[in-house]
Please model this.
Amino acid sequence: MICYLTGLDLKNIIKFGVKPKQPIILTKLLITKVKNHRNSLTGHIVLSVIFSFIFALSTFAQSGDTKNGKKLFNTNCAACHKLEQRLIGPPLKGVASKRDQKWLQDWIRNSAALIESGDADAKAIFEEYSSIPMTPFPNLSDQDIADIMAYTDADPALFEKKKVEEVAIVVADPIDYTTEVLIAVIVIALFFTIILFRLKSTLLHLYKREQGSYFSELVAYISFIVKNNTLAILFVFLISMLGIYAFWEWGLGVGVDKGYQPIQPIAFSHKVHSGDQEIDCQYCHSSARTSKTSGIPSANVCMNCHMLIQEGENTGKEEIAKIYDAIGFDPSTNSYIENYEQKPIKWVRIHNLPDFVYYNHSQHVTVGGLECQDCHGPVEEMEEVYQYSPLTMSWCIDCHKTEEIKMAGNAYYDKIHKQLAAKYGTQKLTVSMMGGLECGKCHY
Ligand code: HEC
Ligand code: HEC
Ligand code: HEC
Ligand code: HEC
Ligand code: HEC
Ligand code: HEC
Model:
């Protein structure tokens, strides 16, 4: 009511007052900092031991960059290969020591040509895998292939993903007393109503005895309440409490869709794909690195794998069949149906900022170096995606105030860093110091 009278936006006051995300982001930051620090020394030792080991083992890995190899592997090969298990193709761990360098280059660039040339190994592996042809990769350079092979030989422990902190999830939900408060208010209100009714009947009784007129009884009753100051004040107080409470509830709820989890047309599970199968987020959301939006993959992307994987462990053929229905594929003949009228899969959008806000993925993922999980939570554990963060203005701002910009190795920042470090007298710069709180950066 005060806010209404003074023209303040209650929703924002409450949002800024409660600041539910700030401690979490801080905790997260701290944890990652400590972790990075702790890991860096042991990490370096492990790395150098493994590198020298690989060096001694094979001439291949000698020049291979495992990090780049991992990236190339995830984008090009992970659809069909895993390191330790058979997927569509054979497991690739140790293949660099099984085959020679030239053979691998020929195979990866064009396996069909190698098979045709009569190479016995090529023929054997092709037949072993029921003559499924491997996609040719003529664009991969010798270095690229060496990098991929270095990755397939490296110790997988090096690449374990950072786990999103459980602590963060626990703290993320502010305790909700809504129902308790509501019940208490109702009980108090009931209590007063009962007292009033008791009063009324007693008064009625008295008046009936004296005068017997209903009209004068009513007048007397009202004048009693009005004259009795404490009772009147209590009454007004109660009603305004209820009013404020309702207003607060309404204000908090408007536009905040945290936890929003609609039912999707296909029971697509991020847990199966990103968790169990370890498919890289950007294999499907490929535009996150380079553009404003991350995008949802088309059915063609699904078909890269589901042309061959026609059955799931949990849902059998039912859900995967919906992809075929959308794109026009007949699994019984393993071919696309001609002249099929394709139906797009109607995924329900979960995250949605209002039109007047500008948000850019590549700015955060590529320039800012953030992980998807920093904002979207542990997606790789979600059977169905839900909105993990509130997506409110205070959420954006809290992070911009606390998140330190990763400037190392970025020439663009060198000059600005020096200037700002001098200006603020600190080496640690947050997004806010670079103007990340200016209205125009986020609002059109
Ligand atoms: C469309 C699925 C598919 C993709 C994508 C794919 N492969 Fe293959 N790969 C296969 C299959 C299937 C085989 C087994 C041979 C066959 O049937 O042709 C195979 C065999 C191989 C072999 C031979 C293994 C052995 O034991 O001799 C190597 C090496 C290989 N792939 C590397 C790669 C690399 C590196 C990439 C990524 C640049 C890649 N593959 C991408 C399907 C694929
Ligand atoms: C195999 C493809 C695939 C992979 C890999 C994948 N996703 Fe998705 N993602 C989808 C599809 C399809 C949807 C739309 C259906 C849904 O919401 O579940 C989606 C939806 C989402 C959404 C919700 C989009 C919205 O509507 O607002 C987020 C956020 C998301 N993915 C993040 C991730 C992250 C983070 C990873 C990596 C841990 C990842 N995805 C890996 C295919 C994929
Ligand atoms: C890179 C390969 C790959 C891509 C791309 C991919 N999937 Fe999958 N999908 C898999 C694998 C592997 C499985 C696990 C099969 C199993 O359960 O053994 C799977 C399983 C499934 C299942 C069944 C889950 C279960 O456990 O029953 C569904 C449904 C599914 N995928 C839908 C999709 C959709 C929709 C897309 C496109 C947005 C997609 N997939 C893209 C590899 C892929
Ligand atoms: C700084 C926080 C942040 C990070 C980091 C982030 N996202 Fe998002 N993401 C958002 C916001 C905010 C939206 C809503 C955008 C809108 O409505 O315009 C969104 C929307 C999406 C969507 C829905 C479609 C779209 O593009 O609007 C997908 C899919 C998605 N994100 C995937 C990813 C993936 C994959 C990554 C990691 C490569 C990632 N996000 C990293 C904040 C983030
Ligand atoms: C988890 C932390 C985090 C969250 C949440 C976040 N950002 Fe950012 N944001 C960053 C970082 C880090 C950068 C700096 C990237 C760079 O170096 O340019 C940045 C930069 C930006 C920039 C460019 C600022 C400039 O000075 O050029 C805009 C615009 C922006 N964010 C908008 C948003 C919006 C809108 C939201 C909420 C929907 C949001 N951000 C949420 C971390 C975050
Ligand atoms: C880091 C990004 C960012 C910056 C900087 C920012 N905003 Fe916002 N603003 C948002 C987002 C995101 C929303 C949408 C919140 C929602 O939908 O709940 C929003 C919503 C609003 C709204 C609508 C009211 C509401 O709470 O929903 C107003 C008014 C507003 N901003 C004004 C401003 C002003 C004035 C400034 C400069 C002092 C500013 N914003 C700076 C991201 C930003």
